[in-house]
Specification:
mainly beta, 40% strand, three-stranded antiparallel β-sheet, five-stranded mixed β-barrel, 305 residues, 4% helix
Length: 305
C-alpha cells in the first residue's frame, strides 16, 4: 500500500528537466507560436529604436510577443550546445526566452473527489460530468508585479518555440485551501521521506492555471484535467479516493523545512487527512506542456476531518 502511494506521488509531482524539444503538439498555421515563414516583415529582430514593435512570435494568449519582452534567442548545434543568435529569420528550431513574463489562466473552477462528490463518481476512476472532458483555457500574459487570483507575480520566465513552451511563475501572497494532506512515510521510488503533499477538494479550485497539454490550435489551447488517487486516513482499511482537478498533487516541501505543527496527520501509514491549509510562495512550472507542477510553502494547517 505504501508503494502505491509513493508511486502515485512520484508520477504526479516529480517533474523532469525542461524538455524543450518535445512539447505542445501545436498545428502548423499562421497562429503558430513562432512561424517566421508566415511573417517575413517581422522575421528579423527590429532595430533598437523599434524595440517595442511586435515580432512574429505568438504567445499563449494568441498575441504577438514584443521585441522588448525577448531576453535571448538561441538554437542548438549538432553537439546539443546552445548558440545565441540575433535574428528570428532562421529555418532552425529557435528558442525565444522572455524573462519577467509568464502566461497563466483564471481558475477553471471545477474539482471533484469521490468522497466529496459521490453522486458524480462513476466508480471507474472518473466523474459523470468530467468523463473524457477537456477544458478550454484563455491565457493571460502576466509580468512581474501583475496580479491574478489575489496573488502577485514575483518572478517569471517563459521560453517559446514553434511547437513548445516552458513556463515558470512564482507568486506572492497567501491563499487558503481545503483538501487532503499527507506526509510521505519513507524513501521510496525517488520520493523522499517527509515530503508533504496536498490534493484540493471540490471547494478549492481557486489557483491560477498553467499550460499543460495542447490539443488544438493557438490560441485555443485545451488542457487535460489531472486524475489523482489516494488513501484517506481512518480505520484499518482506509477508503481509496479518486480526485480530478487542474492542479494535480501540490507539493508543500519537506516536514524538516517547516515550522508548522503537523500534529494530526497520519504518519504511520502515509494516508491523506482532510485539512484546511494556508500557503504562500506558490510556484507553477510547466515543462514543454507535457509536465506541470504546483508547489508552495505551508504557512498554517488545521486538520478538519
Amino acid at each position: 500500500m505504501k508503494k502505491i502511494i509513493a508511486i502515485l506521488a512520484f508520477l504526479l509531482t516529480i517533474m523532469p528537466l525542461a524538455l524543450l524539444l518535445t512539447g505542445c503538439d501545436t498545428a502548423k498555421n499562421p497562429s503558430d507560436l513562432s512561424n517566421p515563414a508566415n511573417n517575413s516583415e517581422n522575421s528579423e529582430i527590429v532595430p533598437e529604436n523599434k524595440a517595442d514593435e511586435p515580432t512574429s512570435i505568438i504567445g499563449l494568449d494568441g498575441k504577438p510577443v514584443y521585441r522588448s519582452e525577448i531576453t535571448r534567442i538561441y538554437v542548438y548545434n549538432d553537439e546539443f550546445e546552445e548558440v545565441v543568435v540575433d535574428t528570428l529569420d532562421s529555418e532552425e528550431h529557435l528558442f525565444v526566452e522572455c524573462d519577467g513574463l509568464c502566461y497563466l489562466s483564471e481558475p477553471w473552477g471545477k474539482s471533484h473527489t469521490s468522497i466529496d462528490n459521490p453522486e458524480l463518481y462513476d466508480g471507474e476512476m472518473s466523474f459523470t460530468d468530467m468523463d473524457g472532458e477537456f477544458f478550454t483555457t484563455e491565457y493571460k500574459k502576466l509580468k512581474v508585479g501583475d496580479e491574478i487570483c489575489g496573488l502577485t507575480v514575483k518572478d517569471a520566465h517563459t521560453t517559446l518555440t514553434d511547437d513548445s513552451c516552458n513556463i515558470t511563475a512564482k507568486l506572492g501572497g497567501e491563499i487558503t485551501l481545503t483538501g487532503y494532506i499527507n506526509i510521505n512515510p519513507e524513501n521510496d521510488y525517488m520520493v523522499n521521506v517527509g515530503m508533504i503533499y496536498f490534493i484540493i477538494d471540490d471547494k478549492s479550485a481557486v489557483l491560477p492555471g498553467i499550460f499543460s497539454m495542447t490539443y488544438s490550435q493557438v490560441p485555443e489551447y485545451v488542457n487535460e484535467i489531472s486524475r489523482n488517487g489516494f488513501f484517506l486516513a481512518g480505520g484499518d482499511e482506509p477508503e481509496f479516493v479518486w480526485a480530478r482537478n487542474e492542479y494535480g498533487i501540490i507539493s508543500l516541501g519537506n516536514e524538516e523545512d517547516t515550522t508548522v505543527d503537523l500534529t494530526g496527520i497520519d504518519r504511520e501509514h502515509g494516508y491523506y487527512s482532510k485539512a484546511k491549509i494556508t500557503v504562500d510562495d506558490i510556484e507553477l512550472t510547466s515543462s514543454g506542456g507535457d509536465m506541470y507542477r504546483y508547489s508552495a510553502r505551508l504557512v498554517d494547517l488545521e486538520i478538519i476531518g
